[in-house]
Structure formats: structure tokens, C-alpha cells
Amino acid sequence: MTTLNIYFSPDNGVMRTDDQVLVFPGLERSEFDRGLGQHMNGGKSAPDYVVYGPTSVVLWEQRFLVGLRFFKDVVQAVTLTLEQGRVAVLGYDATEKDLLAEKKTLTTVISKHLACLPSSTSLGADVFEFPWGGIVSRADLKSTWCGIEVWYK
What we know:
It is a single chain. With 153 residues, this protein is α+β, with helices and mostly antiparallel strands. The protein has 3 helices and 12 strands; from the N terminus they run ββββαββββααββββ. The strands form 2 sheets. Strands 1, 5, 6, 7, 8, 9, 10, 11 and 12 form a 9-stranded mixed sheet that branches. A 3-stranded antiparallel sheet has the order 2-3-4, with no helix packed on it. β3 and β4 (21-23) form a beta hairpin. The relative contact order is 0.16.
């Protein structure tokens, strides 16, 4: 699996490589399929939903596995999961303490690179809101998943 170096703009929600725009608000699935979608596996996950993934990326000096979710053929969200994170290594053996520590780390990374604090915080999620959508650093205690979700309006 090739690792892509990607960049994120909090001004408009665009994710890009040095020479290609990967994801942006309003991205249609047909356009995605002609670009990065050629290198990812896609499949229907529910009526009107198609999910692509995974591919490896480096963003904010961290390695993530990334997946994309389309609703009615328009991008809805991007999911980023730390590749080397403690939660990924432990899987279902991750404790609440592990999940919350990793969420705190992810929130710190987001805050540092976007130069802002979360709009709202809770035990399971820290939310950064923008006019185009938002970013959530999430720890899901039920599924033992921890990661970042970028969602588009």
C-alpha cells in the first residue's frame, strides 16, 4: 500500500497531495472514482451509502488509514485512524483509558495544526466546527475505535 502525503485546509475543508485535490465539500463520487477512488476499494454499506478505503496517508506528521463515505453519491465524511496508535495495536483489548488518551492526543494534533481549540468537548468527542462542516476527534467506547472524522455539510 502506497502512503500519500496529504495536506488539509481548514479554510475550505480540502484535502490534497502536492499535485492533486483528493477530497472537498460537494465532491461527487464519479469524480472521486476518476482520481483517488481508482486506488481504493469501494462498496455499498447501506442504501444510498458507498464507503471507500483503506489507504495510508501522512497528515499532520501522523500516519493514518483513511476511508471515505459517500451519501447519495456526494462525499459526506472522511475517517482517519492512527496506524501506529495504541488503540489500533490493542484492538478490542483497548481500555477506556487508552481510548481517551488517544482522543486527547488527536485533539492536541488537530488544535496545533489548525491553530484553534474545539468548539465543543465531551467525554467521547471533541468537535471543531467550520462553515463547510467540521472535524471530530472521537473515542467510541462501545466499538473501541478512536480516530478523526472530517464531515461535510
